[in-house]
Amino acid sequence: MKSVPFSVLALGAGLLLAGCSSNQIPNCPSAAALADTATITGFRPGAPADPSGEAYTATIATVNNSCSFDRKTSQTTSSLSFTVRATRAPRADSAAYSLPYYVAVTQGERLLSKQTYAMQVRFAPGSAVAQADESIDQTTIHLEKGHQPADYQILVGFQLTDAQRAYNEKRRRYLP
User: Fold this and answer.
1) Which domain holds residue 157?
2) How much is the pLDDT for 154?
3) Which of 17, 13, 33 is nearest to 155 (CA)?
4) pTM of the prediction?
5) Does any domain span residue 58?
6) Does some domain include residue 74?
7) Which residue from 41, 37, 65, 73 is spatially nearest to 137, judged by alpha carbons?
8) How far is CA 174 from CA 6, 22, 51, 61, 168, in A?
9) How many domains are there within the chain?
10) pLDDT tens digits for range 71-104
């Protein structure tokens, strides 16, 4: 077996890697949960706003996006789905909570649009964990001249009050 010069191997590897790159434009905007608003905590009526008074805590666990891109109209239409995982202290009763959330479209630091919605999370009797899936069928983005779909972001998060936002900040100091 003949040895192949290192320069020939390096050239071959470079050509293989070059074949992996693409000039195609990503057709979907990115989608994610905004970390500062990805968790919401509800408190029992009359209970203190500390861990002893928590009725539940819900977190956006996964976010998925699929989209279509129409080059003629310079717009992309996305279908967004996400999963919420909620926890509570084990209790014998069932419970259902309405969780306000938003879907926002941004381009860099600019907020282009924001819609608010509500979803239900239900705990079965005796259950300490609940999961809910939510989907938004159409989020349309009209691309500005000179921008590509990948220049935009679709963000989801809970619509928090100032007190809930402050509680998240306080709680974050103690999380591992």
Assistant:
1) 24-172
2) 96
3) 33
4) 0.80
5) yes
6) yes
7) 65
8) 53, 44, 11, 20, 10
9) 1
10) 899 999 999 999 999 999 888 999 999 999 999 9
